[in-house]
Design brief:
Shape: globular
Distance between the termini: 11 Å
CATH class: Mainly Beta
Number of helices: 3
CATH architecture: Beta Barrel
Oligomer: single chain
Amino acid sequence: MSAMDGDSTRSTVHVMAQAIPLVTRAAPSAGGTDQTQFAVTQLVVMARASFLRNHAQLSAALNGEGLTMKEGELNTGAFGEGFVDRRHPHTYLHELMLTARGSAGPLSYSATAGRGFASFGTDDPMMRPLVKYPINHHLSQILERPALIGALRLGPAILEGSTFGGDEPSSPSSFQRMDRFGDSWAARATLLPVAGAEFQASYARVASPEESGGHGLDQRKQSISARAATSDGGRYVLAEWARTLERDHDRDVNVFGYESALVEGSLRGGPLTVAFRLEQTDRPEEERLADPSRTPRPASDLHINGITRWRVATLQIAAPSVTRGAFSGFPFVELARLSAAARDSRSFFTPQRLYGTSDFWMVTAGFRLRLGDAHSRMGRYGVALPTLH
């Protein structure tokens, strides 16, 4: 839903609401048992506005997953923020960023402040075709942080830099410690060679994300990706590589390292849309609590019990939308085949010990319910956003 209040100010507002009720069957998952879960995931209300002749922009997103999936979304292989084999609920205030932009000859620039995405990696998976998040979510994006971001754009080249607080949220209602603001930074360079195509490379230094007091391991993160999409969304492809090194800043040495490679895409043909993802991602294995899908928070990140390499092939088939006015519903089915192996034979935690097997299946069926047109991108601001929708 959008509005324009006149040519003199050219103010626009775009609002979207989304919810995805789904059923997931995982065989097996945490604890080595087959599990079935009904959940309402990606419950969000998002708004984007531009005003003052497009010199100012607002990006906002409220996320209700803390209400609808308190115990996380069943997703074998996933990890992060105290969850394992389940995707954690995001914070209620997912994004609130205010941007000012201007230009000087061929150079355009913007400054953004608020809570949102640091200038690192690829788009939020919520705005990508497949419903289940990739395992590499915590390796390939840095989100829900108080951040200050500057961006420059000259022709097809974009350069961004951001500073932010490194600590991750500890619950859906949490807000990071403001005394840590500025202890981390990220930089991203993007090239737009032709319409619909882009290449990005980014680097980040994140201070103690797992321990809010700042005494945990730091992270050095790298990301490279190539993306192409048609303007109507009928075709899309993304290829990315990411690496995170965990570093003991007291001894100035790298302690652990995790890599990820991913290719995904979608194609709309006739009445159906087909999407796929191929992913290989390393996951740290931490002690489990009595609930095998949870790990201690704060994490005991100075001693993990192994690193597991996950390989996942996912296929989605989505039917045509059922539309009534601004409301639409997209039924879909996703089928994932997963395998896991200890990256080091000396690991104490291995798939055989954790699950009794190294091969897994996961099937998900549901509806992507939406009010208003979908946002095309999420994770970039101001002149760093190739297209503003």
